[in-house]
Design a protein that fits this description.
mainly alpha, 11 helices, elongated
């Protein structure tokens, strides 16, 4: 059963660009370009669904590779193995750290817009998913990674029960920075190592299958041309997903770096919307926009 259906603050669908948004709208007494905020919001809504789509493609990539088995019996058996290895429970648990990250970033958004944090009982489900689900699943996680996820969750609990307000935003970024980096690093491993490995396997199987087909069609130019065209189309779709892996990995890197730089600035006494902060946000936004488009095209 998927205990975590959606982030803690579903009304503010935002994943990757939530952090820049929250800090742009969080400024007090400074004129902020509302069209820029609107653009950030649109991009955030598009970004929110990307990791779950990648998580779902673990199973789909495995199945796609199985379809190139020569014998029907082998294909059926391999598809069953895909269903066993990458079932719905696996996908749900793969999304757990993503849900923690989204919930944390959406809390920052709530604080930055002047709202008061409220405790949400769904945090109990998310905590259970981390400690009794993810920690005991087939997905490899370390005690350090589980501890980091719990660190963010404890902050969410504290913010909700103590009804944090905007003035706590700087403290939030400073105190959660270490845990956030570990959670993001874990998501990077899921994407850039585990998922990328499945795509490489898929690519190897495809290349082997069509190289055999081309060899068989060497005396039939029309058939060879058709086989080659089909091969190219399939490889193009796979290449788009492989590029999305690189782009999404870079997105996570950019978010971790932005959060880390902001934490340092706030620790040094910078104002919530100081010129230095806004400069960082502008630079990272410029970098993230094309990366998000790459991921969106793939899924």
């Amino acid at each position: 059963m998927n205990l975590v259906k959606k982030p803690i603050y579903p009304g503010k669908s935002a994943l990757i660009l939530s952090l820049p948004i929250v800090l742009l709208v969080g400024g007090c007494g400074r004129s902020v370009d509302l069209s820029t905020i609107q653009n950030f919001a649109i991009l955030s809504n598009q970004a929110a669904g990307q990791f779950p789509k990648i998580a779902a493609d673990f199973h789909d990539s495995c199945v796609r590779a199985s379809q190139f088995s020569d014998a029907l019996a082998d294909r059926v058996e391999e598809e069953r193995e895909c269903d066993r290895l990458f079932d719905q429970e696996y996908e749900n648990k793969l999304n757990t750290l993503h849900d923690v990250l989204v919930s944390y970033l959406q809390l920052l958004s709530k604080l930055a817009t002047g709202e008061t944090a409220n405790f949400d009982p769904q945090l109990n489900d998310l905590t259970f998913a981390v400690n009794s689900g993810l920690a005991q699943s087939r997905i490899p996680t370390t005690p350090e990674q589980i501890k980091a996820a719990n660190g963010l969750l404890k902050f969410l609990f504290r913010a909700g029960t103590e009804r944090y307000q905007q003035k706590k935003l700087k403290i939030a970024i400073e105190t959660t920075n270490g845990d956030l980096k570990i959670v993001i690093e874990t998501l990077k491993i899921f994407v850039n190592s585990d998922y990328a490995r499945l795509l490489r396997t898929e690519e190897d199987v495809i290349n082997l299958y069509y190289s055999k087909k081309l060899a068989q069609a060497k005396n039939d130019p029309a058939l060879a041309l058709a086989v080659d065209r089909e091969w190219r189309e399939i490889k193009a779709a796979l290449r788009t997903r492989k590029e999305a892996v690189q782009s999404y990995t870079e997105i996570l890197i950019q978010i971790a770096q932005a959060h880390d730089q902001l934490a340092q600035l706030y620790a040094e006494g910078e104002a919530l919307d100081s010129p230095a902060v806004l400069q960082i946000l502008a630079r990272y936004a410029h970098t993230l926009i094309p990366l998000l488009e790459d991921v969106r095209k793939a899924f």
